[in-house]
């Protein structure tokens, strides 16, 4: 998978899977724009990744921010080849404890951001008649889980299919990735380590995944090696949803 000369945007790239995706693209020759609302950590991650990493502060729920990120990327690097809509959050709350503000926050970050990113990235890609958009959903875009998180991840899956059909005419592919339990800061909120260990025993492969394992899938979908894949969902969950 050769990304020399390719320009990639990865959202939510300050840490976790986003940082892993950015590193993987750079390791394969790409120029990567890392975006995140956490400017301090995002810039530190970009600095660690070297000269081919460029950080932009970015609220993925803001239409104005999306305009700025896309316009600045194209202005600085000449084109845009890949967008990875990775930014996302989750809550560990019951239906009765999720407030309207909670719900709107998770909707905006997990779902609205994917719509905005796909819309504006595709506008930049369609003139060149090629591009790949990879939307990070979850196994909770396939099976039930927490209220709010599940809803938005199902929506990412459906939106990816709808966008793929519309954008195929422009040579732009759109696919969704559905990770299972990944060893990132998201699963280490509070005293959760023992619970994660116990849950891992329920996974057929008997372990959680490392972020780099998902990054390999993202690279494949972003590359020409997957040139006939669009509108599809790719599941990486250690066999969890096969049970």
UniProtKB/TrEMBL annotation:
Q: Which UniProt keywords apply?
A: Lipid metabolism, NAD, Oxidoreductase, Steroid metabolism
UniProt-listed Gene3D superfamilies: NAD(P)-binding Rossmann-like Domain (3.40.50.720)
The GO annotation for biological process reads: bile acid metabolic process
Give GO MF terms, alphabetically: oxidoreductase activity
* Pfam families linked to this entry: adh_short_C2
Any signal peptide, and if so, which residues?
A: none
* SUPFAM superfamilies for this protein: NAD(P)-binding Rossmann-fold domains (SSF51735)
For this chain, the family text in UniProt reads: Belongs to the short-chain dehydrogenases/reductases (SDR) family.
Q: What is this protein called?
A: Cyclopentanol dehydrogenase
Q: Which organism is it from?
A: Levilactobacillus namurensis DSM 19117
């Amino acid at each position: 998978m050769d990304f020399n000369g390719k320009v990639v945007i990865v959202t939510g790239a300050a840490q976790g899977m986003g940082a892993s995706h950015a590193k993987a693209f750079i390791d394969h020759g790409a120029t990567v724009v890392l975006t995140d609302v956490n400017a301090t950590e995002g810039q530190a991650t970009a600095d660690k990744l070297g000269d081919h990493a460029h950080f932009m502060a970015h609220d993925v729920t803001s239409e104005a921010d999306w305009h700025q990120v896309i316009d600045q990327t194209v202005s600085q690097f000449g084109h845009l080849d890949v967008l990875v809509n990775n930014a996302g959050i989750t809550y560990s709350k019951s239906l009765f404890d999720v407030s309207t503000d909670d719900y709107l926050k998770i909707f905006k970050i997990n779902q609205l951001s994917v719509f905005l990113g796909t819309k504006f990235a595709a506008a930049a890609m369609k003139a060149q008649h090629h591009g790949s958009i990879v939307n990070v959903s979850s196994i909770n875009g396939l099976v039930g889980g927490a209220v709010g998180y599940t809803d938005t991840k199902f929506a990412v899956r459906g939106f990816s299919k709808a966008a793929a059909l519309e954008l195929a005419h422009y040579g732009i592919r759109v696919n969704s990735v559905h990770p299972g339990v990944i060893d990132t800061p998201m699963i280490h909120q509070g005293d959760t380590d023992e619970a994660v260990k116990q849950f891992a025993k329920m996974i057929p492969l008997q372990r959680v995944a490392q972020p780099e394992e998902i990054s390999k899938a993202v690279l494949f979908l972003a590359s020409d090696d997957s040139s006939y894949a669009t509108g599809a969902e790719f599941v990486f969950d250690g066999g969890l949803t096969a049970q």
